[in-house]
Amino acid sequence: MTIRVVIADDQPAVRDALRLTLDGEPDIEVVGEAADGDEAVRQALWRRPDVVVMDLRMPFVDGIAAIRRLSAVETPPRVLALTTFDTDEYLFGALQTGASGFLLKDSDPELLLRAVRALHRGQGLVDPQVTTRLIRRFAMLSPAPPTGALELLTAREREVLECLAAGLSNAEIARTLTVEEGTVKTHVARILHKLGVRTRVHAVIYAYEHGLVP
């Protein structure tokens, strides 16, 4: 199945670089481009992509506002947010408004491809360069999560959560724990439900906040 992608960035050179990287893959197709958040929303509603690669700092309507609008549609696309080291506030805002992945613009192209494919599979991916600062800052900005939720997890679910915190995909978790990938998906769904969070990224942040992982 081809992964349909819309690229949103106000810099033509960046859009060109992203398109060349993504369109060069046999399983990915760039179906639309946008130069600001408003146009990104229009392209997403028209083109119906699986993933939107969204710059967070754009003129007129920024990426945060665009993500918020896309999150409100009936079947929203997965959003991969792009940011730089000096725009952390945009990064945390994107997480709170519904983005599923976060990359720095200077990330390796292979990480971009991995992120797009991960989001298409319903997973999340955070650039390793910003993971620690993301977790620390999100803990400061977010309401305190319910206490005691970790006690609801089984021993196996805790192992899966630790693997998620290590950045492993479902397939990698399955190999690590010697179980079927479908079993991992079931565990992840139960973890999200028990912790009261929406995404894998939020589950990992919860695990860090509550000391399950260092």
From TrEMBL:
Can the keyword Phosphoprotein be found in this entry's annotation?
A: yes
Q: Give residue numbers for the modification (4-aspartylphosphate).
A: 55
Please state every residue range assigned to the domain named HTH luxR-type. Answer: 146-211
The UniProt keywords, alphabetically, are: DNA-binding, Phosphoprotein, Transcription, Transcription regulation
Task: Fetch the Pfam families from UniProt.
Answer: GerE, Response_reg
Show the InterPro entries listed in the entry.
Answer: CheY-like_superfamily (IPR011006), NreC/VraR/RcsB-like_REC (IPR058245), Sig_transdc_resp-reg_C-effctor (IPR016032), Sig_transdc_resp-reg_receiver (IPR001789), Tscrpt_reg_LuxR_C (IPR000792), WalR-like (IPR039420)
Any Gene Ontology biological process: phosphorelay signal transduction system
Q: What species does this protein belong to? A: Nonomuraea mesophila
Q: In which domain of life is the source organism classified?
A: Bacteria
Q: Which CDD domains match?
A: LuxR_C_like, REC_NarL-like
Q: Which residues form the Response regulatory domain?
A: 4-120
Q: Does the keyword Amino-acid biosynthesis apply?
A: no
Q: What is this protein identified as?
A: Response regulator transcription factor
Q: Name one GO molecular function term.
A: DNA binding
